[in-house]
Amino acid sequence: MRRVEHVMGFPVSVRIDDEGFPEAPVDGLFAWLREVDARFSPFRPDSEVSRLDRGEVRDPSPVLREVLELCEEYRIATGGAFDVRLPGRGLDPCAVVKGWSVQKGAELLSAAGARRFCLNAGGDVIASGGPWRVGVRHPEHADRLCAVLDLTDRAVATSARYERGDHILDARTGRPATGLLSMTVVAPTLTEADTVATAAFALGRQGVEWAAARENCEVFAVDADRRVLRSPGFPVAGAGSAAA
């Protein structure tokens, strides 16, 4: 089974190799992601996040509290480099919400009996079963890969400047983080892979060592001087085209 929908501003694709897997859990996956977009988008004035930011919500929902707790955990862990509350800007937890929500969606598929599947959310991937081949895009050449991974029951996420420019800020200075061109993290969940990648990018060059020191995280980074920095356990399969 394969399906692609555009949710939360990016394409989300799912491939499930389990024979006879029903459509209903996949419907539930996309319904969940649409619910997340409606609740967490800072670009929707009626979202819970926007209403909380305006002081109209006194008691956030359990899922919003969960996300805000994750945001605070990473703010503390990075010494303030990663922060979803920046002066002059509204509350924007998107850096945590993407990986967290897609991971929850993958758990819905697993609970419904899916065993071998690949869930790709705007280039960030959850690989269940496996091995799956996943490509890491070159930070400067859209038609090239800088690595191909073998993933089994893991997730991979990349933060970079190639899609949206200098959109990741170092909250300690309020200026764009420019020490890295790209940061890719492999972790047990996309919640962790995506948030660690963004937080490490915000830290700049020191973020490579910070991310690699986190338990169960492997990293592949290209710094502003175009040096490749890779942790020993990063699951590189070799060069070539990605199959996921």
Salient structural properties:
244 residues, alpha+beta, 8-stranded antiparallel β-sheet, 3-stranded antiparallel β-sheet, 13 strands, 27% strand, disordered C terminus
List the helices and strands and how they pair.
Blueprint: E1 2-7, E2 10-16, H1 24-40, H2 48-53, H3 62-77, H4 94-111, E3 117-121, E4 124-128, E5 132-137, E6 145-151, E7 154-160, E8 169-170, E9 175-176, E10 180-187, H5 190-203, H6 206-212, E11 218-223, E12 228-230, E13 236-238
Antiparallel strand pairs: 1-2, 2-3, 3-4, 4-7, 5-6, 6-13, 7-10, 8-9, 10-11, 11-12
Helix pairs in contact: 1-4, 4-5, 5-6
Distance between the termini: 14 Å
Query: Low-confidence stretches at least 5 residues in length (pLDDT < 50)?
Result: 239-244
- The outline comes out as globular
Number of strands: 13
**Run of helices and strands:** EEHHHHEEEEEEEEHHEEE
Number of helices: 6
Largest sheet: 8 strands, antiparallel
Beta-strand percentage range: 25-35%
User: Which structural class fits the helix and strand makeup?
Assistant: alpha+beta
Question: What is the C-alpha radius of gyration, as a whole number of Å?
Answer: 18 Å
Q: Looking across the biggest beta sheet, what order are the strands in?
A: 1-2-3-4-7-10-11-12
In helices, the fraction of residues equals 25-40%
Quote the average pLDDT: 93
